[in-house]
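ok so i was messing around last nite and threw this chain in just to see what happens. nothing serious, just curious
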Amino acid sequence: MVLKCLLQHIGISLLIAAMLLTSLLCQGQSLAVKNDALHDALLIPNLGMEMRTGVRTTINVEGTYDPISFPSSRKWKNWSVCPEVRYWSCKSFSGLFVGLNVLAGGFNMSRIPIFNFNEKRAQCRLFYGGGLAFGDHYVLSPRWGLETKVDFDFVHMEYSRYRCGTCGYKEEDVVTNYIGPANISIALVYIIK
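result:
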């Protein structure tokens, strides 16, 4: 439990520090801030930042953090950090790109009508993995853009499944691996000049 909290705070602190430091070091059209509309639709607060490192390369960092519980003992608490190196087909922040990413995170879900957790709870202290990202950036104006992206990742998860959303009776510990689409994103991008 302590390790989970420590990793959450370290991940969030590193994300915020990276965003603040890079904004001080970057020049015009080399830094972008983004927000994923699909995460917003799922009520998951998120923020991303991308920094140009070359004519066709960028470093992207995205993160989520949702500490909110909902009425009726429903939970969709989660956190994640996903740094990524991108190579662009034409130039940074324009057109198609391919990326190499790593990810880490955790979750605590209860009474969510997906993954057969209608009356159950699942708690994962840490999941991790990595893979490839494919996307496209559409330029809307000199400062605004729209980015679509799909991540194909390997993800290793170890989580505990509980009988009900509020009780502490553990049914089983589950260790599983997943290979496939791990994230679909439609993000609004603001390029800082």
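not much to say yet. The first strand starts at residue 31 and ends at 36.
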